[in-house]
Amino acid sequence: MSEPREAASRASRLPEEARAALDALRQRYPDEEALVLPALHIAQHHWGGWLPDEAIEAVAHELNLAPAKVYGVVTFYDLFHQRPVGRHRIRVCTNLPCALRGAEEILQVLGRELDVGEDQVTPDGRCSYVHFECLGACEMAPMMMVDGEYHGPLTPEAVRRLLEGLD
Ligand code: FES
């Protein structure tokens, strides 16, 4: 038996439903390695929006890959989370143009309004926020991304209104 399978043999397994979803994709991909991204998406969905070690190891086991390889993918892509995240995920750009136009204040407003620190989830599971490198919308500075949508130029009041509109 190959080393990766042995390494992952103690790992937890994907639940039946997730394995079925992965099986349905298998014929569309040339090999198991090509399935890493969809498998991680499926696992992340199953584990409630993030990937604990158990989930990453389950994916490695399912695809017969070394866990380190799957961890490498998880840490490379921002779409995968190794900590719990809120239903609404907020990213605040703090690169220079946004920083010069008040990104720090935007982060402070988020902290006050949500009453949690960066990278923490509100007790109701509604929101989490992080600072981020340039999101490619410098003309909107200061700006942030909420669930994939760009918002800016922001003011503290605009941030408060945005938060009020999130379910
Ligand atoms: S510096 Fe903020 S989007 Fe580019």
Give a verbal description of the structure.
- By secondary structure, the protein is an alpha+beta fold.
- It folds into two domains: 3-76, no CATH class; 88-164, Glutaredoxin, CATH 3.40.30.
- Helices cover 45% and strands 11% of the residues.
- It has eight helices and four strands; from the N terminus they run αααααβααβββα.
- A four-stranded mixed beta sheet has the order 2-1-3-4, with helices on one face.
- α3 (36-46) runs antiparallel to α4 (53-63), α4 (53-63) crosses α5 and α7 (103-114) runs parallel beside α8.
- The longest helix is centred in the middle third of the chain and has 12 residues, at 103-114.
- The radius of gyration is 19 Å and the shape is elongated.
- Bound molecules: FE2/S2 (inorganic) cluster.
List of distinct ligands in this structure: FE2/S2 (inorganic) cluster
The CATH class label of the largest domain is Alpha Beta
Series of secondary-structure elements, N-terminal to C-terminal: HHHHHEHHEEEH
Averaging pLDDT over every residue, what do you get?
Answer: 92
How many domains would you count in the coordinates?
2
At the third CATH level, what is the topology name of the largest domain? Glutaredoxin
Silhouette = elongated
Beta-strand percent range? 5-15%
- Strand ordering within the main sheet: 2-1-3-4
CA-based gyration radius? 19 Å
Any idea what the CATH superfamily of the largest domain is called? Answer: Glutaredoxin
Work out the helicity level: 40-55%
* Number of distinct helices: 8
* Main beta-sheet strand count, sense and barrel state: 4 strands, mixed
Instruction: Report low-confidence residues grouped into runs of 5 or more.
Output: 1-10
* Strand element count: 4
CATH architecture of the largest domain: 3-Layer(aba) Sandwich
Distance separating the two termini? 49 Å
Secondary-structure content class: alpha+beta
